[in-house]
Amino acid sequence: MDSKLKAQPADNMNINDDEIDLFELWNGLVAEKLTILASFVITVLLAIVYAFSVQPVYQSESYLLPPPAEKVLAINEFAAILGTKRQDPESLFTQFQKNLESRLTLKLIFDKYNLINIYNGDIDQLSGVDKIKAEKVAFADFIKDFSIKRPKEKESPEEITVSLALSLTEQEVADLLNIVVKTTEERTIDEIYQQLIAEKKSKINVLNDRKFGLRKIALDKRMDRISQLDEAIIITQKLGLNKPVSAGPTLNINNVNTESAYNTALYLLGSDLLVAEKTVLESRTNDDAFIPELRELQEELQKLQRLKIVKSGFGVMTLDQAAIYGDKIKPKKSLILAVAGVLGLMLGVFIALIRRAVKNRRQADLTSV
């Protein structure tokens, strides 16, 4: 019982030793105020140097809508003549957006304006695999800096926002974004134009093949007729028939060109008529006048050949608002300085506590000696 009572003050003493004296802590921080102030000032100064030395990044935006009806109509007029699928504003705008997001379009701009120097200033000093890797990384960063914002449900269902952020001047960023949009528009229009040209050539080829086929069939029919006449002439010569016969099998001279006449009573016309017809057929240079479909086909073919597809009236998007200038998004100097100030104070307090702890430990060691 007495031993427990005697141990109680010792436990209280340990508890008191573990408690933090806030007044002593505050006094320690006050004593180290110069350390805290120095940490704060140095951190803020470093932040100021960084904020005013880093290359600023500007972001510019452009707003786009589907093409107007008259621009789509110009495309559909040619599609109607060629008998191909008609377009609508939404499908054309979708095709434009796909090209806008295409790596091919962005790579074209990236290479043409040598944007790799923005991301890697030492690219000219690299070679081989290292240069290829650096270019790949730089282009990937460029793709991240280019973005397309599509509308939310409460916003316009058609308008999209295109943005580009680069460490160029505010005007250069806007100009480059406008170039990206314009290049994509031209590429999309050229795709539609080339498609119409290809369809025109394909249809002309089909008509030419059909025209060739009709002429070939007409020639084959004429040669078949000559062969039939040759055979009928031999029969007339053997029978001694020079003139059409007036008796025998029924003969309808008006229908001698029918297939039945060829097969039954062609020789009854007599050799004089048959030889005359054969001579005319052999002297014929072409059969165009005897092909009923040919003139209509030639008219359609000439119409296609005279057709000039002009893409100047085509449209795949409407520029609701072009990029005018860029807004600075990096560095945010006020935020950098605020964060640096807080970090400087925290670092200063941490250093002050460590210094105070070291001093107390030394003082305690001297006291115990």
Q: How would you explain this protein's 3D organization?
A:
With 369 residues, this protein is an alpha+beta fold. The protein has two domains: 33-201 and 312-363, Bacterial polysaccharide co-polymerase-like (2-Layer Sandwich), CATH 3.30.1890.10; 203-306, Helix Hairpins (Orthogonal Bundle), CATH 1.10.287. It is 66% helix and 8% strand. It has 13 helices and five strands. The model is unreliable at 1-8, 10-18 and 254-263 (pLDDT under 50).
Q: Brief description of this entry?
A:
It contains 13 helices and 5 strands. It has 369 residues and is an alpha+beta fold.
Q: Any key phrases for this structure?
A:
369 residues; Helix Hairpins; 2 domains; 5-stranded antiparallel beta sheet; 66% helix
CATH topology of the largest domain: Bacterial polysaccharide co-polymerase-like
Strand tally is 5
Taken together, the total number of domains comes to 2
**Dominant shape:** rod-shaped
SSE class: alpha+beta
Class of the largest domain in CATH? Answer: Alpha Beta
The CATH architecture designation of the largest domain is 2-Layer Sandwich
Strand coverage percent: 5-15%
Helical residue percent? 55-70%
Helix count equals 13
Cα-based radius of gyration, to the nearest Å: 47 Å
**Quaternary arrangement of the chains shown?**
single chain
Report, as a whole number of angstroms, the end-to-end distance: 36 Å
- Mean pLDDT across all amino acids: 84
CATH superfamily of the largest domain: FepE-like
Low-confidence segments: 1-8, 10-18, 254-263
Largest sheet: 5 strands, antiparallel
N-to-C SSE series? HHHEHHHHHEEHHHHEEH
